[in-house]
Specification:
Mean pLDDT: 96
Low-confidence stretches: none
Structural class: alpha/beta
Number of helices: 15
Strand order of the largest sheet: 5-4-3-2-1-6-8-7
Bound molecules: adenosine monophosphate
Shape: globular
CATH topology of the largest domain: Nucleotidyltransferase, domain 5
Radius of gyration: 21 Å
Amino acid sequence: MHILVVNCGSSSLKFQLIALPSERVAAKGLVERIGQAVNAQFRYTAGERDFPKKAVKAPDHSAAIQQVITALVEGETAVLKAKSDIVAFGHRVVHGGEQFSDSQLIDAPVMKAIKQCCELAPLHNPANLAGICACQEALPGVPNVAVFDTAFHQTMQPHAFHYALPPRYYEKLHIRRYGFHGTSHKYVTHKFAEVQKKTPDEVNLITCHLGNGSSLAAVQNGRSVDTSMGFTPLQGVIMGTRSGDIDPAVVFYLIEQGGMTVDAVNDLLNKKSGLLGFSGVSSDMRDILAAVDAGNERAALALNMCAYGIAKYVGAYHAILPRTDAIVFTAGIGENSGPVRAAVCAHLAGIGVALDDGRNMAHRGIGPVSSPSSRIPVWVIPTNEELMIARETYNLMQARP
Ligand code: AMP
């Protein structure tokens, strides 16, 4: 059975066609610059074969998905005999609010609830909805499944998800910690359990998703009990362009004393802060590391601030978990950067974390990078959100009457 996994941004559509249950990726790619004055760009790979990037007409997400489906079934890019070989679409949906603690087969009530969550994620959910509508229009009758970034964290208890505000702010405005990257935290949790020949409910982990956006989760018996992102992805550790945790009074000060508008502060904290803002070098960790090597002290301080903040969350989560089976690093930075893992773990000697330096720096793929003497094993597990979305979609398809 082929499932088309779709991840829509406001001007982009990422996709993977995955065969289940074999989990083979038949094709994948990206349509960028959707709805812009210039032509959209279409990147497409079938199996191991990369096709040259080409310009296509994609004034909206419907046109973009048509381009993708045509590529999947026609001409030299074809990997399917017919459109009807696509048995379901699996969609990444950023915000499921409190309504969804699991993936959902999309029907009218689910669509309505996703629309309601637009006010909580105004930059993301409208694009996710546009993708769902485009797929419904392209292949009527083919089921669509929503997999929410927030769902995995819905197991957090009230003492972990509430902010200390009067109740009406939660009741009327739904202000609470939601957490994001749930699909990734869940994937690495399940993968760790699988390689340990355990079930997910037998593992306790601290999962560190460190990418362009970063978050940590405390996972107890396979379920999220706490996470570093909050009401929005701005809370938590230092990220590429986001400040992460900051005294909220700084916002009032910037407006009242700094003469900034609300929009300007929003832009500052989300897009001009973090590694980029503090170092003045880049939001990309590879550039930060290169600048550190070249002797840039500001970049070195940015790296250490980032690593120190991550280590503080690890320490906090270790304290609240009854047992920590492993600290797991994942996503672009977590998977690929031995120096960042080393910088984080340097602040964790107090709880007995010790890396195997050679192994950590040379590591590729999945496996441990800690020394045998480490009191808590440290693992690297490459994430695969698309595969997780395909699996969730497949499971819902199998469960249908
Ligand atoms: P993601 O959001 O998971 O795609 O991660 C993207 C980020 O991973 C990029 O912005 C880079 O900062 C980072 N990254 C990717 N490869 C490396 C690497 N080899 N070393 C350090 N950072 C990396």
